[in-house]
């Protein structure tokens, strides 16, 4: 029977412990809605990765009081990086399996270390846990008007000549900025949904999401001479998204 891992250095009441330098944790946007994707960034205080026979990594965890039907807690590992590097962790409620609960999530940045166990050899089971910092996610309650948005205007590519094996071509999508009663246009992001048949977009999860305020987006390479359809929807910082179904077929005038 394998023993349960031993937790060393349990959570302290303070934000920083064990001599680590104070971490400045940045959360953007500062206020969101049930479908908002938050980005949490900080500078890695100590190198993470495989070091001296152990795996060292930073992890973001958080929880909120909930009556069910929304995300009660989350745990996301930060990318490995050298000490002093600023890393960013994306907290997308759809990737976490639902939507945010209204209210405040109490979040923590923790550093963990586990042993590297050679295959087939006995290995101690332990976890060294070092609290680094705290942060909060503020989520507005349901409601609020969605942005007013006219939808995608054009989707153009340019692939001169006959198609070559494996060739790909990006499409450039354009639209007019959306307006929102509670947020400036510079804070609105656009979710892009792509399909290979008319009406085939899955609105459960976007194919791409733009930076705030964008009115032009260049897709990654898609199969040259292929048929693609696009719908673009506007989403405000509170997570309210318009429901337009304006679909444009990608056009390649260079063919």
Could you characterize what this model shows?
Strands 1, 3, 5, 6, 7, 9 and 10 form a 7-stranded mixed β-sheet that branches. A 4-stranded antiparallel β-sheet has the order 15-14-18-19, with no helix packed on it. Strands 2-4-8 form a 3-stranded antiparallel β-sheet, with no helix packed on it. The protein has 2 domains: 6-139, Immunoglobulin-like, CATH 2.60.40; 152-249, Immunoglobulin-like, CATH 2.60.40.10. It contains no helices and 19 strands. The protein has strands at residues 6-8, 26-28, 31-32, 38-43, 49-51, 54-63, 73-77, 86-91, 103-115, 126-139, 152-156, 168-169, 172-175, 189-195, 208-209, 216-218, 222-223, 229-235, 247-249. The protein has 255 residues and is mainly beta.
Helix-strand layout with pairing:
Layout: E1 6-8, E2 26-28, E3 31-32, E4 38-43, E5 49-51, E6 54-63, E7 73-77, E8 86-91, E9 103-115, E10 126-139, E11 152-156, E12 168-169, E13 172-175, E14 189-195, E15 208-209, E16 216-218, E17 222-223, E18 229-235, E19 247-249
Give the helix/strand class: mainly beta
Mean pLDDT: 85
What's the shape?
Answer: globular
CATH architecture of the largest domain: Sandwich
Give the termini distance in whole angstroms: 66 Å
The residue ranges in which pLDDT falls below 50 over 5 or more consecutive positions are 1-19
* Helix-strand sequence: EEEEEEEEEEEEEEEEEEE
| DSSP helix fraction | under 10%
CATH fold category name of the largest domain? Immunoglobulin-like
The first-level CATH class name of the largest domain: Mainly Beta
Largest sheet: 7 strands, mixed
**Gyration radius over CA:** 23 Å
